[in-house]
Amino acid sequence: MSASLLQLTDVTIRFGGLTAVSSVTADVREGELAGLIGPNGAGKTTLFNLITGVYQPTEGRIDFAGTSTAGAKPFHLTERGIARTFQNIRLFPSLSVSDNVRVAFHRHLEHRTWQSWLRGGRFHAEEAELRERTRELLSLFNLERVQEAPAKSLSYGDQRRLEIVRALATGPRLLLLDEPAAGMNPSEKDELMRLIRFVRDRFRLAVLLVEHDMKVVMGICERIHVLEYGRKIAEGSPDEIRVDPKVIAAYLGD
Amino acid sequence: MAFPVAQRWLLAALILAGLASAVSSSIDPYFLDGVMGVGVSVVLASSLNLINGFTGQFSLGHAGFMAVGAYTSAMLSTVVAPRLGWNPLLLQWVFFPLSLIAAGLLAAVAGLAVGAPSLRLKGDYLAIVTLGFGEIIRVVLQNMDAVGGARGLTGVPAYSNLFWTFGTAALTVYTVWALLNSTHGRGFLAVADDEVAAEAMGLDTTRYKITAFGIGSFFAGVAGGLYAHLKGYLNPGGFSFDKSIEIVVMVILGGMGRHAGVVFAAILLTLLPEGLRELGSRSVPNPFGGAPWSLDWIKEMRMILYSLMLILLMLMRPQGLFHRSERRRRGA
Prior knowledge:
Radius of gyration of chain A: 19 Å
Oligomer: heterodimer
Largest interface: A-B, 42 and 35 residues
Order of helices and strands of chain B: HHHHHHHHHHHEEHHH
Radius of gyration of chain B: 21 Å
Number of strands of chain B: 2
Strand order of the largest sheet of chain A: 6-7-8-3-9-10
CATH superfamily of the largest domain in chain A: P-loop containing nucleotide triphosphate hydrolases
Distance between the termini of chain B: 36 Å
Structural class of chain B: mainly alpha
Largest sheet of chain A: 6 strands, mixed
Shape of chain A: globular
Number of domains of chain A: 2
Strand content of chain A: 15-25%
């Protein structure tokens, strides 16, 4: 068994009197394809926001790659290797497709902001290299043909894919996907499942997936965590989850 | 050494400004004054464009930062410079640029002092804070006897010339352009587009906003210094809310986040009132014979015409004369 990349220990968050996530302990292992499911309002997106540093837990701790994430802002955690996509697509709509990816690559740059003012040799060399890497990454996902188009002009499916490409450009070890299959038809969903497996294998990273679509979750996840009313009610392989009485009760009612 | 293309443009602009400056004694002083005013406007509009246009913030305090720079450099020239005993040429070509940098730095400090705590605020809230700041600066200056108070500060030497005004304008445009056309610089646009996503992509959004604010106020301060040494007289009333709005209008009219559009709007809006005044002092020949028709009414209706033109332009081109998405659409 490989080591935990992400470890949540008794994580709780309260908003005033509401306990959105209550004492959740879960982990994502290195290179694993993990899923997070639960009925509406179970606290899945809140948990995502806790992992990415948008919220700080009221109690409990979150460790990423062996270090606590307490007090770290979202951009710090991105630097440490957590990347995400959003439930409702959040690209940079007015930027071109390649600029969307380029911006996410920025932390690989050696030169500082003021050096883009001087525009010396180092600046040009690095920018050229980055453009090449951006092009390579985009071509891997068949987005090279639209690289100069504004992101907002892309089709829905392409925008979803671009969001994943942009997240990959930050060089993550853990990729969080927030309902990537939302709004997709069955054949697009099959395509997405292939894409997620390909991303995991090719970039050797762990994926944590929040998804409503059971076919997608059961189809690709190796381990699934189930939330209900902010509590974790089950954890296991898709086969175990499918027959778990608590999970069935949560989804179908008692 | 071979300069990259962008720097060649900057160099060419600086040389041109220098040449123009050398022959400026043969130019009509009234015209010259207007032209230098254009340079100052370009600096103001381009620097505000970095904050309001590219980074998506909304500052209404640009006149305040301009005032900080104007009074800083004016005080340096009227209080410090005479004690140095330098010759006038040295003052204009060495002391003046240094005082402009000091003016810019102090304005940048003011910008950071206002920006750092308030950049967590978004949209309207930031606008209100910066508006308040601009007014505070004006009121403080009005009540400071050391800088002339409400009477104003007189006797500022006329160090501003074509080279300094246009050189600074070229440098400002280059700086904003160079900053934006880089991977780091695309971060400003990303922050404007979607702050949450930018943060999730590892961009320190606060740092980007503060950088934009600092650089923007720096150039506003430099513009203030140029303005002070152009007019020779400073009055706190000249840095009121109206002035901030005037600069905001240039940015909006030019198309938020368009380099050329904003420069064009700055030129247009600076020359328009002067042009109308000039037109008003002429007359057209009467086609029916008799006394020529006077265009005096234009002189009187100048500000109304100016406002009407703005309203018409906004109705016809709400996205600005040039807009960012337009070029992209063509490029796609």
